[in-house]
Amino acid sequence: MKVNDVTTYEVEGRIAVITVNSPPVNALSNAVRQGIAGGVEKAIADDAVGALVLICEGRTFFAGADITEFGKPQVEPSLRELQKIVENAPKPVIAAIHGTALGGGLELALVAHYRIAVPSAKCGLPEVKLGLLPGAGGTQRLPRIVGIPKALEMVTSGDPVSAKSALEMGLLDELAGEGQLRADAIAFANRVLDEGRSLVKVRDKTDKLDEARARPEIFAEFRKANAKKFRGFLAPEYNIRCVEATLVDQPFEDALAYERSLFDVLMQDSQSAAQRHVFFAERQAAKIDGIPADTPTLPIAKVGVIGAGTMGGGIAMNFLNVGIPVTIVETSQAALDRGLGIIRRNYETTAKKGKLSAGDLKKRMSLLTGSLALEDLADADLIIEAVFEQIDVKKDVFARLDAVAKPGAILATNTSYLDIDAIAAATGRPESVIGLHFFSPANVMKLLEVVRTKDSAPANIVTAMKLAKTIGKIGVLVGNGFGFVGNRILAARNTQADRLVLEGASPEAVDAALYDFGFPMGHFQMRDLVGLDVGWNRETTRSANVREILNEMGRHGQKSGGGYYDYDENRNRVPSPVALQVIEDFAKKEGIARREVPADEILDRILFAMVNEGARILDEGIASRPSDIDIVWITGYGWPRYRGGPMFWGDLQGVPVVLEKLKALQAAHGDGFAPSPLIERLAAEGKGFKDL
Ligand code: 3HC
Ligand code: NAI
Predict the structure, then answer these.
(1) Residue 241 within a domain
(2) Using a 6 Å CB cutoff, which residues line ligand 1?
(3) For residue 134, is it within any domain?
(4) What confidence score (pLDDT) does residue 405 get?
(5) Does 107 participate in catalysis according to the annotation?
(6) Whether residue 557 sits in one domain with residue 448
(7) Pairing with 527, which of 64, 247, 428, 668 sits 20 to 30 Å away (CA)?
(8) How many folded domains does the chain comprise?
(9) Is-above-0.70 flag for pTM?
């Protein structure tokens, strides 16, 4: 029988089964909560019913509160009211879990009297990832079942645990057979009745808390151990405070009210708004505008990689990791041996850490073939070029590839900045050419810029985006233009950072401003880490900027003991008098007056220049949406997640403010800050980037 559009109610013997089916993920929307409440009330009123099973159809148990309803008016019952109805039901309620019981979904399961799940299910409280905390009793009930240390881990990481672990922790009472959840949950409910088991309320359990009472220092220890990971984020600390509150001697309702008050603070904060924006932006990025959804993808069963250097090796590993064979081509046996050796050593290091079995290591290496002949790529479905960043070298490779690759093969370049249309023109099949811009280290970094050229075939674009997912990357589709999205905005940051140090800011001051904003490392620190000589051409160098001069002096960054900073043998960083002298001398030569540069000027110049560049990129159609730019900078360049990406940050300032700032910066520092036409337009129309 239907309770409402998303809920059905059936009675099997003594057991009422309330089934929710609200695609895609059974989020606890208004309709879902109403449906469950209606079902539970029916079951309570029905004398023939002894116990209730709450179960979902579709791909998962409730995936949490409905994030799309946040900030909108809620209809009764609220999640908390629904929880009261369930927890206080006079008949046992059994939550039957498959897929992922997340956030409010798990919190609802925690007010059921018993929980059963299939082995493939997962349980977690991921609110922290949205800048929130479990606001429906999760921080109070979870520690009462799994203990404080595990609860702290779960609420601050947001990562789910497997059904097996959940069973061991006591979070689940039983495992069902895979594919027979409904029947097993009903059987379990019948047993609960037969054995006259009590109505267990998690809120009444205290034994696990008593264990922690003896060691109150665990909270301080946990904060200290995770300080680096939590830096800048509000939500982890608030989650910890709530778990800490489980040890306070107070009525359970007061603890819930405390949790609620902290939840409300987080919900109002810009960090949660930013993190929720990122959640949807990541999913939006996977959607391709302008290409029919039913465009078929091509099978990628064999991959070729050209160049076994820094990038080629890492790129190859992505495919080996998911069981796709790779042939890697080099120009000399020495370069090939070096490249293959690095791949093997990387895997061995992972194996030593216990994260890869000997069997898997062997399997992955067995999928890898080295070659000195491009002809060996004749049967590859996808070929990724990662040779030197020189247009002539790339054109030559693509012209030769054209003669070798099978018809229909996708020919991709990993270029950082070069014009992919020009590279494609070296072939007779420009529709087959695409950019796949990986980030270093390519086997680790999550971002993949998929660059469509003016001729890229839709099937190739769709295939590349799908492939990104297959190899665990976040693919962002971008257009062909200098530096695409990420590196072009990086270039805008470079310009400001370089200029700021010439005007008198120290590299430490620039780095500190960015670090304090939330980047994992400063600008010059990053350059030193990557190596100042990446992309530096020793043949054409002519002391044209500080970076070139440092390179000419052999100061290539960390690896050579010095760049913008000096490093000791343990790579500890100290300010460099030598680099400072180079900067001062160069400023003098260029006639740039040096002065004290305030920290807020450093940040303003860098950040507003980046937003302005992002706006130009949008105007030129190089990025399809502002949120794509945000994803590129968060996943590829360490922009702090809790600040939502440069375009979200621009919206947070307000586009009119961005415009005023840019005009003021333009007046003070020149036309490099001329506001992009898009910003002028949006300000005039009273709109933000979010309205695009
Ligand atoms: N509310 C609304 N929509 C949601 C949602 C939610 N909680 N979770 C997922 N969706 C939507 C996604 O936006 C996506 O929509 P789209 O198809 O229009 O893009 C669709 O569901 C499918 O999501 P995914 O593409 O992510 O599907 P996957 O199968 O890869 O993953 C998932 C499924 C593991 C459930 C993943 O979506 C997820 O992690 N969701 C978020 C879970 C979460 O954070 N829950 C806590 C919410 S906050 C809360 O509960 C507060 C409470 O404590 C009071
Ligand atoms: P690298 O210098 O480490 O490796 C290039 C390799 O290509 C060398 O091993 C070289 O022997 C080989 N090679 C050169 N010509 C070849 C040819 N004709 N056939 C086969 N092999 C050839 O360079 P890196 O850093 O791996 O860069 C490769 C490409 O990736 C460049 O286009 C670069 O801009 C891009 N890139 C680099 C990133 C980085 O951080 N290093 C990040 C993203 C892209």
Answers:
(1) yes
(2) 24-25, 27, 60, 63-68, 79, 100, 102-104, 107, 126-127, 130, 132, 134-136, 138, 283
(3) yes
(4) 98
(5) yes
(6) no
(7) 668
(8) 3
(9) yes
